[in-house]
Amino acid sequence: MVTRLNPYLNFTTEAREALEFYHAALGGKLEIMSFADGGMAGDDPTTADLVMHGAVVGDLGLTIYASDAPPGGDTPVAGTHVNVSISSDDTDLRPIWDKLTEGAEVVVPFEVAPWGDRFGLFNDKFGIAWLINQNGSL
User: Fold this and answer.
1) Can you give the three-state secondary structure of 113-136, one letter per residue?
2) DSSP-derived secondary structure for 39-106
3) Which domains does the chain have, with CATH numbers?
4) Residue 75 to residue 77: CA distance in whole angstroms
5) Which contiguous run of DSSP H or E holds residue 26?
6) pLDDT tens digits for the chain (138 residues)?
7) Burial of 53 by CB count in 10 Å (0-12 exposed, 13-18 middle, 19+ buried)?
8) Which 3-state string (H, E, C) describes 93-119?
């Protein structure tokens, strides 16, 4: 059973450049999904190539996630560029979601996302932004 807690960095339009930089430093595997790839670009061609979700999975087991602001979403402000991400391929994360969202502002409900996984986003009662992503086969 593997469940991971990772930093998730938020950018306005610089996520791709940042991920390539971190990849050069950490090695490993670089994964980038644009808003167009994820079916989330809508009719706005200016956002099609922006990063919906990206990851650097380093050779030492270090993982860092990043994305650009979603279409219509808030522009990150200095000091708010980091979220906490919990992800799992083989663990039901609903109990964790239920506990962490007590008193929270749910931004995206914990539901099946366009990429097939169960995903949710919330700001906890302390103002910390969280992303929860659970393999869609669970």
Assistant:
1) CCCCCEEEEEECCCCCEEEEEECC
2) T--TT-TTTTTSEEEEEEE-TTS-EEEEEEPPTTPPPP-TT--EEEEEEESSS--HHHHHHHTTT-EE
3) 3-134 (3.10.180.10)
4) 6
5) helix 15-26
6) 678 888 888 888 889 999 998 898 778 999 999 998 888 777 778 888 999 999 999 877 779 899 998 767 777 776 667 888 888 888 899 998 999 898 999 999 999 998 899 999 998 886 778 899 998 776
7) buried
8) CHHHHHHHCCCCEEEEEEEECCCCCEE
Nearest partner of 26 among 58, 52, 73, judged by Cα: 58
**β 118-123/63-68 pair status:** unpaired
Residue identified by tokens 């999975």 is 57
